[in-house]
Amino acid sequence: MDFAMGFSRSRQGHDAIWVIVDRLTKSAHFLPIRQTDPVDRLAQVYVKEIVRLHGVPKTDGQSKKTIQALEDLLRLCVLDFGGSWEDHIPLIEFAYNNSFQSSIGMAPYKALYGRKCRTPLTLTEVGDRQEMGATFVDETVKKVNLIKERLKAAQDRQQKYYNQKHRFIEFQVGDFVYVKVSSMKGVSRFDRVSKLSPRYVGPFKILERIGKSTYWLLLSDQMSDVHNVFHVSTLRKWISDSGKKVSADEVEIQENLRYEEEPELILAYDVRKLRSKQIPMVKVQWKHRSAREATWEKESDIRKSYPYLF
């Protein structure tokens, strides 16, 4: 999972942080970038900082709670460190990767390397103080403690929001569950995420419970490229509305648990009038959706992508 957040410009000229998180171990990399960086520049950063260490990873989904907690953490730290925030990115990344994650029952560092890490907080030993300088050691410990406080505040706040909106669900090994997937309309390169309601594929058998809220599923052959460990928030034991189910045999589920929704029929035509122009629109019936979920799209986009409908 990856996403970028904009900030005030640092002394080095960067104004955004590119966050890349491994779904299984929860380990993260925070990469300072410019929002105006071209694709080839971002590709160089990706190879240098990610591929160099981990090879070419598969993209995958990530929980909204994790994203929001990381956004909160980084925004709080940027406020604390002002224009020098980029200088402290390594310490922020280190503090996050060495904090306990309840979903995996350990710190991301231990999940990734199989052992605990000696943190900067141990630099108070006499030998380290003499070798690295007492002032440097004291400042580093002070900053790491501040970052840890900000991380706990961000996690506590997001956990509070999450608990208010979600009820606790628990499954047993051997239960059959459905997995939530989202669809991409695919009519525009700027419309990556569909506004349509989610669908569910399955059922799949639970093989193992990992931690308090993560489950290992036995997926079908059609979903062989999808990572088979899921957070409980993406699972459903049963669905009363059969219209929300979709078969993995009917659609191609991608690694990020999305599939491309195809239009089936044009239901109506209209023109959206703006101040200086008029935009022809069409009401589209999607293949795996009910008539109530039909959406209005630009006629030019639909004609270009699906000329057979006309």
From TrEMBL:
<dbReference type="InterPro" id="IPR036397">
    <property type="entry name" value="RNaseH_sf"/>
</dbReference>
<dbReference type="GO" id="GO:0003676">
    <property type="term" value="F:nucleic acid binding"/>
</dbReference>
<dbReference type="InterPro" id="IPR056924">
    <property type="entry name" value="SH3_Tf2-1"/>
</dbReference>
<dbReference type="Pfam" id="PF24626">
    <property type="entry name" value="SH3_Tf2-1"/>
</dbReference>
<protein>
    <recommendedName>
        <fullName>Chromo domain-containing protein</fullName>
    </recommendedName>
</protein>
<dbReference type="InterPro" id="IPR012337">
    <property type="entry name" value="RNaseH-like_sf"/>
</dbReference>
<feature type="domain" description="Chromo">
    <location>
        <begin position="261"/>
        <end position="310"/>
    </location>
</feature>
<keyword id="KW-0175">Coiled coil</keyword>
<dbReference type="InterPro" id="IPR000953">
    <property type="entry name" value="Chromo/chromo_shadow_dom"/>
</dbReference>
<feature type="coiled-coil region">
    <location>
        <begin position="137"/>
        <end position="164"/>
    </location>
</feature>
<dbReference type="InterPro" id="IPR016197">
    <property type="entry name" value="Chromo-like_dom_sf"/>
</dbReference>
